[in-house]
Amino acid sequence: MSDSDSIKKPSSDATGLRKGLTSYGDSGFSLFLRKAFIKGAGYTDTALDRPVIGIANTGSAYNPCHGNAPQLVEAVKRGVMLAGGLPMDFPTISIHESFAHPTSMYLRNLMSMDTEELIRAQPMDAVVLIGGCDKTVPAQLMGAASANIPAIQLITGSMLTGSHRSERVGACTDCRRYWGKFRADEIDEQEIADVNNQLVASVGTCSVMGTASTMACIAEALGMTVPGGASPPAVTADRIRIAEQTGAQAVQMARDRLTIDKILTPEAFENAMRVLLSIGGSTNGIVHLTAIAGRMGLEVDLKALDRMGRDTPVLLDLKPSGQHYMEDFHHAGGMSTLLRELKPLLNLNAMTVTGRTLGEELERAGPGFAQDVVRPMSNPIYPQGGIAVLEGNLAPGGAIIKQSAANPELMEHEGRAVVFENAADLATRIDADDLDVTADDILVLKNIGPKGAPGMPEAGYIPIPLKLARAGVKDIVRISDGRMSGTAFGTIVLHVTPESAIGGPLAYVQNGDRIRLSVSKREISLLVSAEELAERARRNPVTPPTADRGYRKLFLDTVTQADKGVDFDFLRAPVNTGTTPRG
Ligand code: FES
Question: Sign (positive/negative) of CA torsion 98, 168, 137, 278?
């Protein structure tokens, strides 16, 4: 194409560099100017005439979980060019769990807005989303869902495991286990420092079935990655090959106009929920799936999800529910091994980024082989799905518990509430010698919900009070409106909705109240009369938190509760088109 052809007035269904022109009032001039500037970087017209593939580059010195981003970007570019496209990488916000204050969740929606708006603003026919650490994959899927162009997820991949005195260790189930030992005086300062060097043995995401691994598996189950895209560790050749394939596939998606709405269907969300339940996935997976579904106009029906859980066993033997790590899952065949087992429960006609259905991809993956990481349906790790949905007067909008990581002896339990008003109160008193607490009590932590902290921190894994830990207590029932890391374990009720900071019943729990947890009946009840609770609310009404300016104001004014995915209300699709899972 000649220079004069290539700067003709673009049409409304423009592609490539002609898409989304800057508004100067003269579209021909806008394209002329755009090409003049990009040519300053040495591009030729031949290059600029190819399908443009955006690459959301989330490499950041603050994000070691994305530490392989430079190699991934290079491999994606190679794949794009081999397939005849023009790769254009661009930076977006990157969020790491341990480097985000007050929480990474506080910034997830900001990253989703950044991703959506940069996809919309810049010319691209398809986008490759490079994500891995807990909030990045959901943020990218939320943003891409709203932008609705062809989009494909590239996972950064898990870290390698380390070794401490001959014991295999990995972040972050072992982080918590060793920290618990240190708190209980079972190991000394030298040993905890030694462990600190071994827990994260390479760049990449946490090596257990935490939120990052959960979201990687969910992304593949949704059909948003190339087959096998969830499991290769970050530093392997397999991961780099997946990146190259992803780049090439993005070009094909651009040519086929395979937009994300053709992939993120109700059937795909059902497949993702099956997978979430069967991998003993992070409870955060529910919040994120709810937010992504909300961008597509779908409500998540928590009761239907719970029913789905009753006939979806946990098959994946990974920590914290089991014993292995992500690299073992990869060696065992990764997601195709799991999906093969789940086949009777899946919607095999769901479309994937390859343009083939999940069922067709499973056929192409070939037969399975002997391995011990994914169990058969006849011999599960846990007979039901990893997550149960609870209801009762303490959580009218629902709460959840990761039953596969809970203590069976505590799942039917009534006890006395020991209440902490907020995270600061907890920090001040949890280790006090005079804390009035026994192993039969129930720890209640308020004000760590979406608005409460704000940002719904992963503080739901309330530490065992020091005096109990030193006495050998390993678990105690804990309840909060916050979240918990997917790497944690214990009998822990989370996401109590509505949260205490907006006046949910949790706000009015007092020391000494009786609380009943029955996972078998899916019940979480505060054994206090409605009249008494109304009286407490009248005496001490709750004032929801506010802010004067900036992102904090936007957050506090518009963030929704856990049952809506903690998304901003104005980012959800304007029209509700149905519920998921169905039935
Ligand atoms: Fe990034 Fe765990 S901290 S995945």
Answer: negative
- The verdict on the CB of residue 133 being under 6 Å from ligand 1 is yes
pLDDT of residue 4: 47
Instruction: Show the beta-strand stretches assigned E in 101-150.
Output: 126-131
Q: Sign of torsion, CA 313 316 321 322? A: positive
Q: Distance, CA 154 to ligand 1 centroid (Å)?
A: 16
User: Hey, what domains does the chain have and what are their CATH numbers?
Assistant: 1-49 (no CATH), 51-159+206-365 (3.40.50.2300), 164-196 (no CATH), 387-543 (3.50.30.80)
**Cα-to-centroid distance, 183 and ligand 1 (Å):** 23
134 lines ligand 1 (CB under 6 A): yes
For ligand 1, pick from 58, 104, 133, 158 the residue to mutate: most ligand atoms within 8 Å of CB: 133
1-9: long-range contacts, CB 8 A cutoff, minimum separation 24: 1/45, 1/49, 2/45, 3/45, 6/31, 6/35, 6/45, 6/48, 6/49, 7/31, 7/32, 7/35
Best probe residue, ligand 1, of 58, 62, 97 (max atoms within 8 Å of C-beta): 97
**Residue 97 CB less than 6 A away from ligand 1:** yes
Instruction: Output the DSSP codes for 204-224.
Output: SB-SSSSHHHHHHHHHHHTT-
Nearby residues of 46 by Cβ (< 8 Å), 6 or more positions away: none
pLDDT of residue 172: 85
Q: Is the CB of 203 under 6 A from ligand 1?
A: no
For residue 132, the ligand 1 atom closest to its alpha carbon is 4
Q: Which residue from 104, 174, 200, 206 has its CB within 8 A of the most atoms of ligand 1, so it is best to mutate? A: 206
Q: What angle do CA 534, 544, 146 make, to 5 degrees?
A: 120
Write down the pLDDT at residue 11. 57
Return the pLDDT at 385. Answer: 87
10-residue block means of pLDDT along the chain (583 residues)? Answer: 48 85 92 96 96 98 98 98 98 96 96 98 98 98 98 98 94 88 92 96 95 97 98 98 98 98 98 96 95 97 95 93 94 98 97 98 96 96 92 96 92 98 96 96 98 92 93 96 87 97 98 98 97 97 97 98 97 95 84
| Closest protein CA for atom 2 of ligand 1 | 206
Centroid of chain to Cα 277: 14
- What percentage of residues in the chain have a pLDDT greater than 90? 93
Find out whether the beta carbon of 96 lies less than 6 Å from any atom of ligand 1. yes
Please enumerate, as own/partner, the contacts of 25-30 that have beta carbons within 8 Å and a separation of 24 or more: none
Cα(462)–Cα(475) distance, integer angstroms:
10
* 65 CA to centre of ligand 1 in angstroms: 6
* Residue of the CA atom closest to atom 3 of ligand 1: 97
Ligand 1, atom nearest to 213 Cα:
4
Atom of ligand 1 nearest to the CA of 205: 4
pLDDT of residue 461: 92
Can you tell me the distance from the alpha carbon of 432 to that of 427, in angstroms, rounded to the nearest whole number? 10
- 458 CB under 6 A from ligand 1? no
- Six-digit token pair at 238? 């397999």
Q: What is the pLDDT of residue 3?
A: 46
**65 cis-preceded (ω within 30 degrees of 0):** no
